[in-house]
Amino acid sequence: MNAASNSGLMKPIGGIGRANLFRALESSIKLDRYNTQPLLENATLSAEINENGNLSGNEQVTNYICDDVEYTYVTPSSEDAGLDFLATCLRTKDFNTVRIVVVCELENQAAKVLKELGKRSIGCLLVNVASKAIDSGILLWNDGLLNSVLVVCDAMLKHLSNIGNIKVNFLVHYSQTLPHIFQKRVQLLIPQPAEGTKVLVIKRKIENLVQQKAGDQKNETSEAQKQTIPTAGTAQNIQNSSENISSMSITVDTPSDLDEMPPLVPIPNSEIQEVDKPTELDETHSIYAKMVPIPNSDIQEGDKPTELDETHSIAKNKIEEVNALSVSDAIYNDGVILKKNNVKQLSNNQQSSNAQKCPYSYNAFGIFTWSRTEQISRYSANDVPEFSPYLKETLRRQNIGQMRAKRVQRFAWPHAASGGSMCIIGNERIGKTWSYLPTLCQHIMLKTPPRILDNTDRGPSCIIVCVNEKEGNEIANLCMELLGTTRLDLEQVVKALSRNCIDEVVETMRKPCGILIATVDNLVKLYLLNGKTKSIFNPAALKCVAFDGIDSIWRGGRTHCQKIIYWILTVLRFEKGHSQLFVVGRLWIDSFMKPLMRELPDILLVFEDALEAAMFAGINFDFLVSNNYDGELLNILAEKQLMKKRVVLACGGNIDVSALSKLLNTKSIDNLVITRFDQETNQLYKDWCKSHMRRVLVVAEDSIDKLRGGCIDFLVHYGYSIWPFFKAQFSIFYNNYLCGIEKFRGTSVVVMRPNEFEQAWLFCDFMLKHNRHPPESFLTVLTECRIVFDALESRPDFPLCRMLKSYGNCIRHTCYFRHFLWDYETKPLDDAPTKGTIKFYVISSVNPAQTAVRLIEKATARYYMHTPLSYFGDQLQLHYESMINHPKCTKPLLNDVYVLKIHNLYQRVSIIRIESVDRIEVKQLDSGVEFYIVRQDELLICDEKFKDEPCEAYDLRITGLSPFNMERIWPDDAKKLVRHKFFEIPAKQNRVFTADINFGFLDLFFVENIYDSSGNDLNSFVLKHIPMYTDGGVHSRLQKYISEAKPSTQGV
């Protein structure tokens, strides 16, 4: 975890750990002091130890061996007894040879362990912040020069493993955590266990854990201003002072015999088939699921941890195919899938709670639903027993789902109300927000009011991440309508939607509040401020996190989303009885949702959009563009029939169905026609699915979503259909998914005529939004149709389209610029660099594919507001700083050179287009390559001594580097990432970069890559961190436009 971005979650080193660190640093300089005695050689115990190693018999100790590692599970009678037992074990170790690490879940828990072990005369080094001093101490500890116990929290494990080859002989889990976190600790700290490696797991009885969780809410210590865990006695006093505190802090519904459940025996390598598959965690056992240490040799490569920086979240190292979630003939057991014939004898209770079949799929109400657990549907809000009478009455007054719920709400309401997480994907205005809002507001009604009794509590109970301020205000109004009367003692809705509201929101969040509604960038700001002066988030009180409009949120701020997801997955448990995650949106975001699938064992997926459900299931596509439309279609159908495949031919209406059926009959292609839906045709469809004779099924599109039967292999789309109807045709694949999404994905065959611009554009847009490169044949359709449109509307005086100029084609839906070249535009620029290697300074990074550079021959004289100025630019700036040299432009001319003040810097610009005196488009010439819209009175006449100087800024383009959208606009987080992380602007100035020019076109210079002085290249950086694709046809398309340039009488 990056230290800079998480400073609010960390504390400086202190106490005994600081003294030991200073002592070790001193010993590393004075070699004669290496042989110091162990710090804790003469420590004494605070309690007597019996012959079994237990403190007066108050601990239950069991031992297991797996892959030559000894695992010890200890269940102490109290937290103090556990600390005494831990201190006793540590005293038996030789600190000169044994490297001991104690891992805690949270940083405040680690601070308490440091303090308590110090009371028991155990020297510890607290590692909860990334700094050079701490890293030096860790290296000394690893080399045996510092004889202390390392106390760390989960947030620092990644940093600890990256420091060097850490050698851990004795790993202590201070509390039993979730299986995937347990496994991650083992992977990072003991990736290759040596002989004699031991692992100690301290479990807690249920009543002790409740007290500890209640204690987690108490105030920060005055000296560190951080949250600490109170002792058991303090927690008990808090509980006695208010009967509501324990229920406010944590809700635990666990059977009383849970304490007596033995830990699951570690499983040998020979019996482990696969690792880290998602499991269904039982509602009553989810907190205390027994963990199995996973042998390193059997960990899949895809699940091994990889480097995670602040811009590349857990999405990279946790992605796995959703199709692998459907595993038949297996028993799921806490992250390990065991073959039935290889499973050793387990207890009946464990087998009954962990055994699970394939995920559940439902095709009802015209929607597709997927879950790992069995689901129920409710027809109205009154049918949801978990909704309180007040909530039902509020929904009735607003006419929300009282008589009949929306389709997606019939599955979503009961699942969310029972404590599960969910993702809903569908079109606009289908009730997605109302699917999670009642449950979220009910949390505020029932669980937030008791929090005001605790003056040390703080932060929201629920968080809603929205797209922008407008949608955030709309959601806030809905929440206020549900919550009812405004409370004077509690802020029920807190909005962090504008740029200048952060300070006010922070003050509000220092006390308990209800719902925080924030944009993703503002939520990141609040998260980074957490704990700097005082904590503003309380993870124990945070019950719901919702992303409303995830497709727009992800496209606008992918990096911010990754930071938030990493944070909430670190501090929250998304299980029934703990926290819930709600995701709703228009599109299925594969790279966002797949990493979450394994972290949410009870997630429900609801698809109202049939095409999005097909993308989730991994459908295949075949594309074809042909003038001989019917002929190509007949060839496809004949080929599939010979392959004995089930083929459905979807038509726009009954007229097309009849005409196509006749055409098939003339070619002797056996077919079956369905033009309407009733019981007879539905049975006909089922019989067709079971038949061995593969006749082509010709169906009208308005009947497709009603057909229920078996699986199909190919869906062929005939004729142009409006986009909503085209997407609805994919609902016929719902029957495939019921058999398991990995078994019958199916294939969609899209056949198109060369003049079908609208359908081609919509499909290309759809593919790009799902990070898939659209078919080249469809892009060609867009280009050729654009040429036809331009021929119908003459635009000789319009500027050249910039997208065409950069990529050799224009794929916008509507474009009013010129899409052909004049002959004078094909001439190369004077004094422009030709092919070969160039060295340059970077003036600015416009986007990942575009960089403004200045050749090193134009040396930098000075920096003005982080902008490098050459000697020419410096003279220009000094000249126009005097008000005497400010002659105003009275009659602007196209392509003429003027002076404009941009960001307090006077620069030369060229006029590109004149629409009116108040709207003139200009382009930078020396200090950048960007365009601006200005007024005439902002332009200054350029002095003659500056006017004829050649341009200093060159526009470098990475050939074919493209973002995943039809406008080819890079998101802001991608621009900032390249600017600050690769070019390091403005932190490191005057750096020299190199590039090899492939070709020039107008004022653009295309290169394959850009390299810094260390050999790092921009292409690899973008490929690693930013979704993109490479268009390989840019050069050939531009050459074609040059060869087809039109003659003109105008000169350069």
What does the model show?
It is a single chain. With 1052 residues, the protein is an alpha/beta fold. 33% of the residues lie in helices and 20% in strands. It is built from 35 helices and 39 strands. The strands form eight sheets. A nine-stranded mixed β-sheet has the order 11-12-19-13-18-17-14-16-15, sandwiched between helices. It has a seven-stranded mixed β-sheet with strand order 1-2-7-6-3-5-4, sandwiched between helices. The longest helix is centred in the C-terminal third of the chain and has 17 residues, at 776-792. Mean pLDDT is 77; it is low at 1-57 and 206-356. InterPro entries: P-loop_NTPase.
Structural descriptors:
39 strands; 1052 residues; seven-stranded mixed β-sheet; nine-stranded mixed β-sheet; alpha/beta; globular; 35 helices
Which spans of ≥5 residues are poorly predicted at pLDDT below 50?
Answer: 1-57, 206-356
How many strands, which pairing sense, and closed or not: the largest β-sheet?
A: 9 strands, mixed
Percent of residues in helices comes to 25-40%
Number of helices: 35
Q: Can you describe this structure in just a few lines?
A:
The chain has 1052 residues and is an alpha/beta fold.
